[in-house]
């Protein structure tokens, strides 16, 4: 908190930015895009960009895939190379006129380029900017996710890292994140299903039995690795919640309770934390 905020001369933000982006966050995000993306990959406003270069590939992906523009209309100079200055100015003009959710769309697109192609650490810088301005969103595995607690982000990221050597577990977790983070059509029901399936898959791997279900697998793990009985019972009950007559894994019934963002968030964070916990226990 700044000095002026402490003495009450200027207000300080007390709530997360959820369905909005204020001017400070908007400016910080643009600075992150400029400094930690364009500058890092070597964009020079005074130079042109050849189409078959690495920067040319990135520019064309942004122009055609994100904006959906015609390939022959990308800004060019007299030599028919891409004009870096005009290209970035086009993006900047769009960015400051776009809706808050469109800005996050763009961050997500650049994050996918970073994760799959560039590997320049752009996602980490974005998350730092989002954290500093109290955004309710973070980027996890190149997806924008609404999670308001930093501890929750850590649990999910650690679970993704810890499960990277176990493909089924990792796949279930990533799918849960994708369902949860889809802003146009979030699927909280299937996100919960994938979260608990990640735990079940990990338990199967621990006991070496692909045919086991969660409850008996947890019983074996409780006895072998000394996990608390109450914790085993809690996750067995959660599994029952997803598998019961009106549960997550069954067709919707007229009297079913609607699955909310809060339900899916709780399951994603809880299952991630439990996977991290189990990993520590079996390594002792």
UniProtKB/TrEMBL annotation:
Matches recorded under InterPro entries: AbiJ_NTD4
Domain HEPN AbiJ-N-terminal as annotated: residue spans: 1-161
Name by which UniProt lists this protein: HEPN AbiJ-N-terminal domain-containing protein
